[in-house]
Amino acid sequence: MSDVSTYNRRLTPRAKAGLGIFARYATILGLLAMIVAFSILSPKAFSTLGNFTNVLNQASLAMIIAGGLTLAVVVGELDLSIGFAASLHGILVTGFIVHDKLPIPLAIFMVLALGALIGLVNGFIVTKMKVNSVIATLGVGTIITGLAFAYSAGVPIVAGVPEAFLQLSLGRWLFGIPNNIVVMVFVLGILWVLVERTSIGQEIQAVGGNPAAARLAGINVDRIKTLGFVISGICAALTGILLASRLGSGTTSAADSYLLTAFAAVFLGSATLRDGEFHVLGTLVGALIIAFGFNGLNIFGAPTFSQYVFQGAILIIAVGLSSLGRSLAES
After folding, report:
1. pLDDT, tens digit (0-9, with 9 covering 90-100), for 226-253
2. Whose CA is closest to 111, among 226, 243, 17?
3. Which terminus of the chain, N or C, has fewer Cβ atoms within 10 Å?
4. Does residue 12 belong to any structural domain of this protein?
C-alpha cells in the first residue's frame, strides 16, 4: 500500500472530500488565477483580444499533437515518437511540394497517410511483439529522426515554398479566425466526440481502465490500442504539416520540442475534472495553462531558460496532481 493511500485513510471524510475537489479543480483554478494575475500586472499587453487570439494560435499545434497523444495514453500506452514524427512530416510535405512538384492536397494526404502508418507500426510493435511502448516508440522516433536527416541531409527546405501552402497555417479563412485555431477546435472536437460519445470511445476507455476485463468482455484490445497509436500518428502528421506551413520551411528538428509540451498538457489534463483520468477536455485545459504561462513569461521579459524551468515544473506538478486524484479515487 502506498504512503499516500495510507495517509488518505487517516483523513476525515470532509478532508478527503476537500482534497478530492482540489485535485479536480486545481488546474482550472490555477489557469484562472494565472490569467487574472497577468491581466492585473500587465493589462495593456496581456488582457487583450489580440493577445488571447495570439496565445491560442501559437498553442494550437501543441494542442493538436497533445490531443492525439491523449488517445494513446487513454488506451494505456505512451507515444514518444510524436515530436520526431511531426518534424519528419514537416520536411516531407515541403519536399513533396517543392522538390517533387506534387499538388498541395496530394502532398498533405500522403503525409497524413504516413502518420497513420507510423501509428500502425507503433501499434504492431507494442501489441504483437509485446515491446514496452516507451521503448518501442522511442526506438521508432530515433529511426524517424535518421530518416529525416537522410531525406533532407540536415538542410532545411526553404526556397520555393508556395504561398498557397503558407496560407494553410497563416490564413484566416473563417470569420477572421486564424486557420490553426479552427483546425485545432475541429480536431479536438472530433476526438472528444469519439472518446466520450461513441461505442468505440467506450471500448477505448475500457481498454485503458482494465485491459484484462476488456478482453473478457469481447473487446479486441490489440485493435483498440493500435487505433490509439494511429490517431496519435495522424495528429502528429497534421501538426508537422501546419508547423511547416507556419515556418515556411521543413526542418529536421522543428517539432521535437512538442513532445514535452504534449506530455505536460496530457498529464495536467488528467488532474482536471476527473480523478486522475486522461481525457481530451482536460488536455485542452493543460495546454492552455502552458500557453498562457509562456505568454506571461514573454510579456514580462523572463529569460529563455525560465520557460524550460516552467514547463518541467508544470510536468512534475501535473503528475503529482494526477497521482493524488487517482489515489483519492481508489481510497
Report:
1. 999 999 999 999 999 999 999 999 898 8
2. 243
3. N
4. no
Helix or strand (DSSP H, E) at 312: helix 304-330
Torsion angle, alpha carbons of 285, 295, 62, 289, to 10: -20
Q: Report the DSSP beta bridge partners of residue 157.
A: 250
One-letter identity of residue 11 = L
CATH code of residue 324: 1.10.3470
User: Is 6 a domain residue?
Assistant: no
Q: What span, in angstroms and rounded, lies between the C-alpha atoms of 134 and 193? A: 27
State the residue range of the domain holding 188: 26-330
What residue has cell string 492525439?
A: 68
Residue 75, φ and ψ in degrees, nearest 5: -85, 5
Rounded Cα–Cα distance for residues 126 and 122 (Å): 6
The single-letter code of the amino acid at 239 is T
Q: What is the pTM of this model?
A: 0.89
Q: How many domains does the chain have?
A: 1
Q: Give one DSSP letter per residue of 257-285, joined into a string.
A: THHHHHHHHHHHHHTSSSSS---HHHHHH
Q: Tell me the C-alpha distance between 57 and 291, whole Å.
A: 10
Backbone φ and ψ of 198, nearest 5°: -130, 160
